[in-house]
Amino acid sequence: MPVGTGVLGQPAAAGRVFDLSGRVAIVTGAAHGIGLGVSEVFAEAGATVVCADIDGDAAAAASRAITDAGGSAKPATVDVSRREQVRALVRSVVAEHGRLDVMCNNAGIIVEAPVLELSEEQFDRVLAVNLKGLLFGCQEAGAVMRGQQAGSIINMASAAADTAPPGLVAYSVSKAGAVQITRTLAKELGPEGVRVNAVAPGLVETTITRRHYTNQDGTINEDNRATFLARGRDVAPLRRIGTPADIGYAALYLASDASRFVTGQVLRPNGGTSMP
Ligand SMILES: NC(=O)c1ccc[n+]([C@@H]2O[C@H](COP(=O)([O-])OP(=O)(O)OC[C@H]3O[C@@H](n4cnc5c(N)ncnc54)[C@H](O)[C@@H]3O)[C@@H](O)[C@H]2O)c1
Q1: How far apart are the first and last CA of the chain?
Q2: Where do the DSSP E strands lie in 111-238?
């Protein structure tokens, strides 16, 4: 018998700790981009995934794509900036499934404006979704998980929380705030068996990045797109930008028992772009 972890000699154990079979997960902002990637990876790992989004039709399409591929998913319509809608979402999931194991607060928006030009309305809008929406998700899921004495909350932050890019002050404030909510809640709920962590992705091409290469008439400028993506690749030591699945696998680690001793941390799937 080897001295140490007890995992040696049990080759299947390391595989099993990533298994989400029988677990119930909510992913917000699940209709597109990173949220869709997280939902697909969770479903691939065996979870029942509630794909929640403000765009109800797209959430239904995301859920259908997962079930068509053999996974277990359900759609839900939610505006995360409305506390009563987040509460209703969490309550309906618990009423149907009897539990909530994973809450991924992923929904987010971006507004680009230099500090001196940022309007109060723009600032409020970004914080309402990215920060208050995330807080509501933490509060509603956290209360359920405290009752269960188990659960994992995953908050979608951003490299912007560390790097403070010019023109993105509302966004980076919201993401730095998301990290502080994560750390505070990890301390408050750790003794209750609930883990709370953040994922801070680097660049992933989604609707959020389109503003960099969209013409005034709404069409994509392919030259600008190629330049933008090449710049993103060049600054990454791994020489590529991320995919939604790359972020999904980071979230899977935090959702699963593989991270059972991890809380209050920020995991940075970013190709090495920033190393704070
Ligand atoms: N794409 C990147 O490079 C990148 C990098 C770092 C962090 N992020 C973060 O990842 C998350 C997902 O972004 P993405 O890039 O996939 O963008 P995306 O625009 O493709 O997806 C965002 C999703 O959130 C939904 N949404 C927006 N407002 C909502 C609301 N009020 N309630 C519920 N759903 C709402 C949208 O309908 C959409 O489906 C965001 O939190 C974003 O800040 C993205």
Answers
A1: 40
A2: 151-156, 194-199
Superfamily of domain covering 19-201+243-267: NAD(P)-binding Rossmann-like Domain (3.40.50.720)
CA distance 252 to 212: 29
Closest CA to ligand 1's atom 1: 204
Find the catalytic residue in 171, 213, 249, 253.
171
Mutate to test the pocket of ligand 1, among 134, 203, 208 (most ligand atoms within 8 A of CB): 208
pLDDT at 9: 56
pLDDT band at 3; cut points 50, 70, 90: very low
Digit-coded pLDDT (tens) for 97-146: 999 999 999 999 999 999 999 999 999 999 999 999 999 999 999 999 99
**Core vs surface per residue 124-157: b (16+ CB within 10 A) or e:** eebbbbbbbbbbbbbebbbebbbeeeebbbbbbb
